[in-house]
Structures are given as structure tokens and as C-alpha cells.
Amino acid sequence: MAQSDMVVFNQYMQPAIIETLSQMVEKFNGASRNAIRLTTQGFSGDYLQESFWAGIHSAQRRVDRYATNGTATTTDLSQLQHNSVKVAGGFGPIRFEPAQLTWLQKPTAEGIEVISRNVAEAMMKDMLNSAIAALVGAIEAQATAKYDSGTGPLTYRDLNNAHALFGDHSQNIVCNVVTGETFHGFIDANLANAERLFVSQGVLVVDVLGRAVVITDAAALDEDAVTGGDIKALGLVTDAAVVHDAGDMVTNIETSNGLERIVTTFQADYTFGLGLKGYAWDTTNGGKSPTDAEIATGSNWDKVATSIKHTAGVIALADASDAI
């Protein structure tokens, strides 16, 4: 790989990564029905802080026209704050020998495609797993949004009971997020059922109880059965989690001498913002540039919506030791 090729390699690497990620974002958003929405619109600073008006429906009251005209309770018109937090990540360094490509007569474009595709896939996985971990932590911390069957495996009935926690807002739940093991448990139940409870729509997304299902073995959904953990499923509304790709990826390709063969390393830094519907990132407890553990901690996500029905969704839990 000549020096001129290295310039081309560095020049086109970052645009290729961003373009690949953008294509994957559109595909995933459609699959999840925008329950977990990945967007390429970023924000500056450590937090995205947005204000919204608190509901005043509780100000409605009954009036007795024949009673003594007493003093009515005052309801203040107020605003609440929604906080998203910026998360930092990195990729690499990846080491390779430029002479490998020339030795094999591989074009520069092939190296760009391989690295850019893998970086984009790794970023997508990080964003999705971070969003799921945050959703599990925040929702599980709310007793009114959690259904725990106490046994396992997770069933259609468990999902339905979790959805029921939203009452007359349950139709707002558009997507379930489950592990592959849970999904195959649904298939097993369906094999013994005369009714067609779900329709396959592809490898990643199917339809269960009239809602899309994203199948992913995210660690936050499957605790270790040996330790008596739970297996979990999320029922999410539109924009339950919004991931902002800040578009501020920094890439660096460095070639060094000193070894028998010339060695090149590739490294990238990136950030993305993460926000949950009805919850605000606790800037005091959670702080800036959070770790994976801090993102998954429920107490770092404060419920700011007045009603649980106006939050990200619900969660169903079952004993992982009873899984299939």
C-alpha cells in the first residue's frame, strides 16, 4: 500500500463508517417501529436538557352548587425537565501491515469497506445494548411498570400482563424486546396452540400479540441463571429510547517504523446521546460520561412524567432458572 493509498484510506474511512451507520439506523428504526429510535442528529455538551409542561388534568374537580362556597385547591402550571446524557466510546486500535494488501493485490477500497462495516456494526451494537440496559434499569425501578411472574419461562401471558400495567394506554406499546431464548419459547408454545399467535416477518423482527418483536441477546435482558437472576422482556412505546449519534467521530491512522515490516494502526473515538421517554438522566447521581454500569442503574434515571402511562414502557420478568 503506497503512501498515496494511505491518504485515500484515511480520507474515505470516516465518511464510509458514517454512511454505513446511517443505512443501518434506518433499517433498525423501521424494524422496531421507532420504539428504540437511533438518530444521526447529535447534540453538543454533556447533556441535552429539554423542558416540557407538566399535566394539569388533576385540577379537574366536582362542584356542589348548593354547598358552602369554600376555597378551591390551587394547581400550579409548571414545567418539568427531560435530560439525555452523552456516552463516549472507542474502537481499536486495529493493527495491520500495509504490505499485506499489496502482497495480496487487494485494492484500498476493500480495506475501507471491511473496517468501516465492522466499526459501524460495533457502534450500532453499543448504542442498542446501552439503550436496552438503560430501559431495563429505569423501568424495573418502577413498581407500577413491572410484572414479575415469579416463575419461568416468559410466556405470552406474562407479556400481556405487563402490557396491562398501562391500562387504557396499552395500545401505545408498539414493540417488545426479548432474547432469542424467550422467542423460541414463544415458538414452542405456538406449536402446541391451534391459533396463529404470531406471524414471522423476517429474521430479526416478528409479530407477537399484535406488536413487533426485536430479538437480541442483550446482557441486560438475561441475568445469570446460576445466581438466581431473571430473564426479562420489554414492552415499549414509540420513542421509548432515543439514541443521538453526535456525528463527532474522530479517526486516526498511524503508520510506524522500527519493526521488520511497516505496521499501521487504526483507532476511532465516538459519542452518542441517550434519552428515555418519561425519564430524566440524574446529572448529580449519574454524572457525566457514564460507564455501562451507571447507564444500567435505575436510580440514575428519574421518572419525570406524572403518570407511568406516559413513560417508556413496561417490563416482564421470569425466573431464568426455569427457562427452556
What does this structure look like?
It is globular and about 95 Å long. The chain has one domain (3-53, 81-322). It has 6 helices and 15 strands. β11 and β12 (263-276) form a beta hairpin. α1 (3-31) packs parallel to α3. 28% of the residues lie in helices and 30% in strands. With 324 residues, it is α+β, with helices and mostly antiparallel strands. The strands form 3 sheets. The chain has a 7-stranded mixed β-sheet, with helices on both faces. The model is unreliable at 1-9 and 194-205 (pLDDT under 50).
Structural class: alpha+beta
Helix content: 25-40%
How many individual helices? Answer: 6
- For the biggest β-sheet, the strand order reads 4-15-9-5-8-7-6
Question: Between the first and last Cα atoms, what is the distance in angstroms?
Answer: 52 Å
Mean of residue pLDDT?
A: 76
How is the main sheet built?
A: 7 strands, mixed
Task: Give a summary of the structure in a few sentences.
With 324 residues, the chain is α+β, with helices and mostly antiparallel strands. The protein has helices spanning 3-31, 98-103, 108-140, 156-163, 180-191, 292-295; strands at residues 36-39, 47-53, 79-96, 146-148, 173-178, 198-200, 205-208, 211-215, 230-237, 241-245, 250-256, 263-276, 279-281, 301-303, 313-319. It has one domain (3-53, 81-322).
